[in-house]
Design goal:
Length: 118
């Protein structure tokens, strides 16, 4: 199963999902699947890659270990970031009225599938 197939499965399985991406920690997307053109996913990932690095530094400095997941709830969307490995993470964008719990579950369940593709 390709990255695109896995991303499509997560987005289509989550009510209110707008898109999903596999992104390098440098902010460069590896693959993406989107059902809307209203959100600039690529520029968003650069910003959230920087945020994830800062949060990881804080987790390490606090001796909490690696950061596995981060959720940002904004006015226009919920953004879930899930670490895949040291080099990559996945992003899922959901409308505010979408099914956050289902999205989080599918995001977590997709990690082993995505890791097989690396």
């Amino acid at each position: 199963m390709s990255f695109a197939d896995i991303l499509r499965e997560v987005v289509n399985g989550t009510e209110g999902a707008l898109g999903a991406l596999v992104v390098g920690v440098d902010g460069i997307p590896v693959d993406e699947y989107s059902i809307t053109k209203d959100i600039d996913l690529q520029s968003m990932t650069v910003e959230y890659a920087t945020l994830l690095k800062e949060i990881e530094r804080g987790s390490q400095a606090s001796q909490l270990g690696s950061t596995r997941e981060v959720t940002v709830i904004a006015d226009a969307a919920m953004i879930l970031l899930r670490r895949l490995n040291e080099e990559y993470f996945m992003v899922l964008i959901i409308r505010p009225d979408g099914n956050f719990g289902k999205g989080r579950f599918l995001l977590r369940m997709s990690v082993p599938k995505l890791l097989k593709e690396f």
